[in-house]
Design brief:
The chain is α/β, with parallel strands linked by helices. The protein has 14 helices and 19 strands. The radius of gyration is 21 Å and the shape is globular.
Length: 385
């Protein structure tokens, strides 16, 4: 049964979660308004993978064709050692079979631009940093840093890993440092016909390469550090030195990277929380379940969130939809946070003896074991939770 929708919804945070939710809620007829703390809405942070589950979620939202048109199709994903010798190849055929769609990579700026183009500009307010909210009898009042107060029927908190909204309900839920920093950039592809993602694990850190459209390559480097508050003066020069003995394409890519394009940040997640729904407020995306990027699933989970919420809202009123949403999303998103954190520790080992042992084990494990995290994630359709 499709119930008519007309309530007012404030969406706080215009990242992938907030923008996708705004598109979906507008289509269902809600009166939507998006608030973003930054001056401008844009995708920061080079590229990212959109695995088949995310593409399936976009299909439920009727956005898949347009999203795929700005994506690069990834045929394979491999993990290699520092010399470029394969340790493990992902079973992409099986992934494809589960969702009947492929894995892709996209430039964040391109995805943001596309999502933004689907929302009427007068529905979005920038320079609006939420600092507080109060649940009243039949409304939610939200307060911004500029002193402005506004009332809505419901609020969606999509304000990312540092979510102010989450911390109003869970004051202790701060981002957790995972023990490594990540540097990222985009360069022109130095190797034609590179269609696969390669992650290289060595004793100087982890280096990932993912081809994008328009002959671009997105790269990332993760290096262990005790300094969660800042790795001083670690720029391109240091990265080039760090990875100089890795297989050829890595030094090549670092040489092609311009200083102005380098982004770095500590890798964090949040400890799983037991609720995403609080009366008239719902958390989605990183605000609810930020994960380390080791499984490339943070944004994919945010898009799944929106598809599941749409499914619920088509059948139920807001409150019931949010209750069911929470039931359907907790287990899967907790699994990702936990598995991804462990995967990061495994991948980030920098002791040579442990590296050799790990690589030997991975190369010799039966596929059923080495592909298990992926199988758990991708063989069960997220709509069936
Ligand atoms: C190195 C790295 C690589 C990654 N790779 C992948 C990948 O390959 N695939 C994948 O699926 N995911 C990946 N991720 C995860 C992915 O980036 C996130 O899960 C995703 O961007 C989360 O989207 P979001 O909209 O929930 O949050 P964000 O993108 O963080 O958006 C939150 C928005 O809220 C705004 N905001 C914050 N506070 C307030 C406030 N108080 N008031 C108003 N607005 C506010 C922010 O300015 C921001 O625009 C990666 C993450 C990292 C760090």
């Amino acid at each position: 049964m499709n119930l008519p929708k007309s309530e007012s919804i404030a969406i706080v945070g215009a990242g992938i979660a907030g923008l996708t939710a705004a598109i979906m809620l507008e289509k269902l007829g809600f009166d939507v308004r998006v608030f973003e703390s930054a001056e401008e809405i844009r995708g920061i942070g080079a590229g990212m993978g959109l695995a088949s589950n995310a593409i399936k979620a976009f299909e439920y939202l009727n956005l898949d064709e347009e999203v795929i048109s700005i994506c690069n199709h990834l045929k394979d994903f491999e993990i290699s050692d520092a010399k470029g010798k394969i340790i493990i190849s992902a079973d992409t055929k099986r992934i494809k079979q589960s969702y009947n769609t492929d894995n892709f990579a996209v430039h964040r700026a391109d995805l943001h631009k596309l999502l933004l183009s689907k929302i009427r500009p007068d529905k979005i307010e920038t320079n609006k940093k939420l600092i507080d909210l109060r649940i009243l009898n039949e409304k939610v009042e939200i307060e911004f840093e500029d002193g402005n107060l506004r009332e809505f029927d419901f609020v969606i908190g999509s304000d990312g890993v540092n979510s102010q909204i989450r911390q109003l309900f869970y004051p202790k839920s701060k981002p957790r440092y995972a023990g490594y920093w990540c540097w990222r950039g985009v360069v022109e592809n130095p190797k034609e016909n590179l269609h696969k993602s390669i992650e290289t694990w060595g004793n100087k850190g982890r280096f990932g390469i993912t081809p994008l459209t328009e002959n671009r390559i997105y790269w990332y480097a993760c290096i262990g550090s005790n300094l969660k508050d800042g790795v001083p003066e670690f720029g391109l020069k240091e990265l080039r030195k760090q990875f100089k003995n890795y297989h050829q394409i890595i030094p090549e890519i670092l040489n092609l990277t311009a200083k102005k394009d380098l982004i770095s940040n500590p890798i964090v997640d949040i400890k799983p929380i037991s609720r995403y729904h609080f009366d008239r407020v719902l958390l989605i995306g990183d605000a609810a379940h930020a994960t380390t990027p080791n499984m490339g699933q943070g944004a994919c989970m945010a898009i799944e969130d929106v598809a599941v919420l749409q499914d619920e809202l088509r059948k139920n009123d807001w409150q019931m939809a949010c209750e069911n949403f929470e039931k359907r999303r907790l287990k899967r998103t907790h699994y990702i946070i936990k598995t991804s954190r462990i995967a990061g520790k495994f991948a980030q080992v920098e002791n040579q003896f442990l590296i050799s042992t790990r690589n030997y084990l991975l190369r010799n494990l039966p596929d059923t074991l080495s592909q298990r995290p992926l199988k758990q994630l991708l063989e069960k359709d997220f709509m069936e939770y």
